[in-house]
Amino acid sequence: MTMSVVSAVPFMKPLHMRSPVPQGRRHTLPASEFRSLSPEDAISVFEIEREAFISVSGECPLHLDEVRHFLTLCPELSLGWFEEGRLVAFIIGSLWDQDRLTMDALTLHKPLGTTVHIHVLAVHRTFRQQGKGSILMWRYLQYLRCLPFVRRAVLMCEDFLVPFYQKSGFKVQGPSDITVGPLIFTEMSYSVRGHAFMRRNSGC
Ligand SMILES: CC(C)(COP(=O)(O)OP(=O)(O)OC[C@H]1O[C@@H](n2cnc3c(N)ncnc32)[C@H](O)[C@@H]1OP(=O)(O)O)[C@@H](O)C(=O)NCCC(=O)NCCS
Hints:
It is an enzyme of class 2 (transferase). By secondary structure, this protein is an alpha+beta fold. It has helices spanning 5-8, 42-57, 64-73, 132-145, 162-167, 196-200; strands spanning 32-35, 78-83, 86-96, 115-123, 152-157, 171-180, 183-191.
């Protein structure tokens, strides 16, 4: 695509060509918005991951290409929380087709699976400890109840976060076979189907 020098460098536009500043109208982005993510959100996701994980352990649940991979294959299993257009928290999931998670689960999406593997939940540093992680997980699980093919959600986490996920209704399955460097994990599971009553009454 070609671009004239003037349009490519807006600050060089002559004054009479600049768009008028709207009078009395405020720029409005939704204060709070929840929506599925798309591959275009991958950079924002990875910025949060970089701070939340890489700066702490040098590792992260999903590298940038993996974020793009899952947001291309199964964007409907992601959920982002945006404040005034800025991503503040997110969940990325994919489908899995076995009882327990294996190394393959870290990179694969199994379209015929009935288990949602939650790869990552993360909240931007400045928005933590405000209930956002719990609320986002709650909304995500509500949403999963509306997907008829989903029976359960699983995740693996470090031991210190087990109580956090238990508060959201997850149950400990046991130690995970998966290790990442020195990190070991507990596998946890949430029965989506076990909430049939809530599904019937959730307006799906
Ligand atoms: C874990 C995380 C998602 C929680 O989100 P949040 O919005 O801060 O959590 P909430 O405000 O909903 O709930 C706070 C609770 O989370 C738990 N929690 C959060 N961070 C914790 C930590 N570092 N150690 C232990 N518990 C923690 C506690 O139970 C806490 O409750 P308390 O303050 O009464 O002890 C968020 O802290 C985060 O993004 N951390 C970095 C990334 C990460 O570890 N993600 C999870 C693994 S995939």
